[in-house]
C-alpha cells in the first residue's frame, strides 16, 4: 500500500495494452482503487472530444501510455501514422488535462527519441544532440515534441508535466504473432515455434552486432509509478536496465532457454536499426530511487513461459 495513491483518480491511457496492464496492476498493488482506462474502440484520443470525455471524471493524475508502436518493419511502412497518431494524441490530451486542472501529467516517451549515435550510455542531456535513427525517427520525433510541450506547459502554465524515457520493453503480455513485433516477442515466437515444430533453421534480421538495453515490463511499470510519485521537474528521466546486450547474445540466450538446437541464419540485408543503445540511469537512481530488479535471463524465461501457455493471446 502507498498513501500517495489513496483517494486519487488516475487516468491510464493505453491501460489495456502491454505496458498499461502492468501499470494498472502495480497501481492496484499500491492501493489505488479509482483507475480510469479508456479503450480505443470507444475513446479515440486522436480526437479532442474523446480526450475531454476521458478526463471528464475529474482525474487527479494522468499516466499517458497510449501510443502507436511497432518494430522496425512497422516503422518503415507507417511513418505517417507514427508521427500523426502519437503527436496528436499527446498534444490533445495534455491541453485538455491542463484545462481540467489535472494535478500531474506523466508522458511515457521512447529511447527512439535519442540521436542515432550519442555517447554510451545515453544521458538525458544528449537528447537534442542529433537526429534520431532514420527508420524510427518519425516515432522518436513525435515523442520529442511531447517533451517540448510538457516543458513549455510547465514554464507558461505551471502545469506539472513530467516525461520518462523507457528503453526496449519486454515481458509477459507482449504482442506476438505479427510481422510487426518488437525484437524480443518476434524472436521468442520464432524459436519456440521452431523448437516445437522441429525446424532446422531460424532466420533472424540483421547482423546481430547492434546492441539494446532491455527492461522487463514490471520494472518499467514500477519506474513509471515512482516518477509519478516523486518527480516534479521538467527534465526527462531515463528508465533502463543498466546493461547493454548485443542482439546476437539475446538470440543465443533465447535459443538456449527454449532448447532450440538448429541453425541460426542471419539476414544481413535487413536493417539492424540503431547501432548501440544503453541508457544512463543515474538520474532515475537519484530522483526516483529506481533500479531494475529483473535480469535479462530471468525476464526472458518468464516471457517464454507466458508465450507457451497463452496461445489464445497470440
**Element string (H = helix, E = strand):** EHEHEHHEHEEHEEEHEEHEHH
Mean pLDDT: 94
User: Order of strands side by side in the largest beta sheet?
Assistant: 2-1-3-4-5-10
Distance N to C terminus? 33 Å
The CATH C-level class name of the domain at 3-171 and 213-241 and 276-293: Alpha Beta
- Unreliable parts: none
**Beta-strand segment tally:** 12
Strand percentage lies at 5-15%
Mind telling me the CATH superfamily name of the domain at 3-171 and 213-241 and 276-293?
NAD(P)-binding Rossmann-like Domain
Layout of strands and helices, then pairs:
Layout: E1 9-13, H1 18-29, E2 34-36, H2 48-55, E3 61-64, H3 72-77, H4 79-99, E4 104-108, H5 137-157, E5 161-166, E6 168-170, H6 183-197, E7 201-205, E8 211-212, E9 214-216, H7 217-230, E10 237-239, E11 245-246, H8 247-258, E12 263-267, H9 282-288, H10 296-309
Helix pairs in contact: 1-7, 2-4, 4-5, 6-8, 6-10, 8-10
Characterize the structure shown.
The chain is α/β, with parallel strands linked by helices and 314 residues long. It has a domain at 3-171 and 213-241 and 276-293: NAD(P)-binding Rossmann-like Domain (Rossmann fold, 3-Layer(aba) Sandwich), CATH 3.40.50.720. The chain has 10 helices and 12 strands. The strands form 4 sheets. The protein has a 6-stranded parallel β-sheet with strand order 2-1-3-4-5-10, with helices on both faces. Strands 6-9 form a two-stranded parallel ribbon. Strands 7-12 form a two-stranded parallel ribbon. The protein is globular and about 60 Å long. The model has no long low-confidence stretch (mean pLDDT 94).
